[in-house]
Amino acid sequence: MFKVVLCRAPYKAYVITPPLGIGYLSAYLRARNINSRIIDPMQGEGLSLQETAEKIRSVTPQLVGIYASTDMIPATKELIGALKKVAPGCLICIGGPHATVLPEEALKELAVDFAIMGEGEETLFELVSMLKAGRGDFENVKGLAFRKEDGRVIMAPRRRPIEEIDEIPMPSWDEIDPHLYMDAPHGIYTKHRPFAPIITSRGCPYQCTFCASGVIWGNKMRFRSAEKVVDEIESLVTRFEIRELHIIDDNFTISKPHAEGICDEMIRRGLNIPWQAPSGVRIDSLDEDLIKKLKASGCYKLAIGIESGNQQILDRARKSLDLRRVEGQINMIKRHKILLHGFFILGLPGETRETVECTLKYAKKLKLDTAQFTLFVPLPGSAIFDEWTKEKGVAQYRWDEFTMYKSVYSTEELSASDLRRLQKSVLIRYYSVPRNLINAVKYLRFKQTKIVYRLLKNYLFSK
User: Fold this and answer.
1) Which of 92, 84, 34 is nearest to 68 (CA)?
2) Same domain, 112 and 250
3) Which CATH number is 351's domain given?
4) β-pairing verdict for 339-346 and 370-375
5) Is the pTM of this model over 0.85?
6) What is the domain extent for residue 359?
7) Cα 202–Cα 206–Cα 209 angle in degrees, nearest 5
8) What is the mean pLDDT of each run of 10 residues along the chain (463 residues)?
9) What's the sign of the alpha-carbon dihedral 313, 315, 321, 324?
């Protein structure tokens, strides 16, 4: 029997949530009678590198599919090395954002057999079907890159994103049980546990130069129906007894009819489950009617991406947001007693000491409950990354440094070390304001204090 294992490498993570990507892949394969199993070393107490490799080997799979974002590449390379020692005959496929954007580099650096570019459901199924049949014409599998025996990398044409995402089964929740991911949810504030993340759409039509979402998911928005989304929520509540929901779309409220439809269906079924949108919504997509509907369906917290308090920085980054409207929008949301978390990025192109001060001053005057000041990361696939690497190439970078806690990017005026020092200063000065400090503490549960400690340690004491 042909067996597939889907996994990710054990790595140092500050947010640990059920891996929806491989959850969707496993469900898609299972629905087509493929023997698929998820092994996630981040569940529960976790597995070491060697334990992960041995557990995969014990399943005796013919193919191992590994998810990796850019910062996970070094840990993924270690896992692949361990796998090749204990299961030398197993084929290995890499997928995720890094492989989507840099497939040739990923194949060579990780020395794997295949890389999937873009959404993986259809591509992985076709690859498995071809391997089961003993065929080797992989160039006919759209969305697949692979290495030939002589080391040459062949890339098939890119695959169009799946149009009808309602046809994709909900993730294999029995393999990624929410109860096994209690330690570090999105952000540091949750009302209840266990929680579960869901996505209700794919795609992003915006052109922000610091983001790669449109490259990875496509620029066209594709929506799940309200019925399918709430079927999944209801299943999570009844089967897994989740007590909180996290909607992690890039753009949950981009379509008012879509967001309202889901809220209406949740209300109609009487689910009464608190939920939040921790990945961020566009504040300019919200109006009072929609906020009322979000609140009535159980929304208690929204994260909003403001990014900078300087309009020129935003305009240069093609972030189509008018700062003159943000304060009024925030005041409108706060009237409905919804908690607000603000995302700010330090170190975007054009950043100076003056614009950093502008961002801090702007953040202080907003009625946010909490705020996050991260360092800019030039993510592969973003327009800034493409420009940044034109002369330097990509071979020299340490991918595990591509996190919001470190800085590999310098602006015209500020070095990476300057930005790290400024980030610490901004955090200290923002939370030195009594109102902001009280807000940061009053919603904190005892079990979440270790998450706060871990985040503060990395924000304030990273080198």
Assistant:
1) 92
2) no
3) 3.80.30.20
4) parallel
5) yes
6) 185-461
7) 115
8) 97 88 99 98 95 98 98 97 97 98 96 97 98 95 94 95 98 97 70 93 97 95 99 98 96 97 99 96 96 98 98 98 97 97 97 99 97 95 92 72 84 95 97 92 65 59 57
9) positive
Q: Which two tokens stand for residue 141?
A: 């599998």
Residue 437 lies in a domain: yes
How high is the pLDDT of residue 259? 98
Closest CA to 294 of 312, 275, 278, 320: 275
- Same domain for 233 and 148, yes or no, is no
Distance CA 280, CA 328 (A): 18
Does residue 319 fall inside a structural domain?
yes
Residue 378: per-residue pLDDT: 94
Q: Does some domain include residue 199?
A: yes
Q: Are residues 17 and 149 in the same domain?
A: yes
Is the peptide bond prior to 19 cis by the omega test (within 30 degrees of 0)?
no
Q: What is the pLDDT of residue 407?
A: 79
Largest separation between any pair of C-alpha atoms in the chain: 66
Does residue 185 sit in helix, strand or coil? coil
Evaluate whether 189 touches 301 at the Cβ level (below 8 Å). yes
Which tokens is 166 given? Answer: 């309602």
Last residue of a domain, one of 134, 155, 176: 155
Structure tokens at 120: 């993986």
Same domain? 276 vs 407: yes
Instruction: Dig out the tokens for 144 from the structure.
Output: 């697949």
Paired tokens of 135: 């065929």
Beta strand segments in 357-416, E? 370-375
Render the burial of 358-381: b for 16+ CB within 10 Å, e for the rest: bbbebbeebebbbbbbbbbbbbbb
Domain co-membership, 207 together with 109: no
- What H or E segment, with its residue span, contains residue 196? strand 195-198
